[in-house]
Amino acid sequence: MQTMVVSGYRSFELGVFQEKDPKIKVIKKVLKTTIQQYIEEGLEWILIGGNLGVEVWAGQVVIELQKEYSELKLGIIFPFEEFGNNWNETNQQVLTELKTQANYVNAVSHHPYQHPGQLKNHSHFLLTHAGGLILVYDDEYPGKTQFLLKEAQEYATENAFIIHQVTMDDLQNTFFEDDSV
Question: Among 43, 95, 106, 134, which residue has the least CB neighbours within 10 Å?
Fold first, then answer.
């Protein structure tokens, strides 16, 4: 598999409002380990949608991993033009920095947000342009990512598509097993 999408909880869904929150370190550690596994199996591209939280942290992990794995590329595919323009200045700066380091940046809809169909089209685009999904999401703690998971599950029933779900238990185990986190 050459391309995978990474998504998951938004930062506010995890109660993360500062870059120094220890939860970020745990999530990044799990993402790094998971992505490295797939690199060993031929992964070349990670696609994210640019949402604050798991997607941005995954992008930062990919940039870090590119130092060791030069073949790894980061694609940011926004659901619509001007995505993130209404965020506060700090969050916009984080996204701008990530965009400048990504290998590819584009949007599914080349119009500003107009309707929810743009979000559905975005999910469909990401799923149909990847061989799998790494998802930091636990069914016991619902969040916005539940819609992407449902669509991915439906897509996977008819296509060769992997869903690698990282649960709260996985995150907790990493926290307790690794002294460096």
Answer: 106
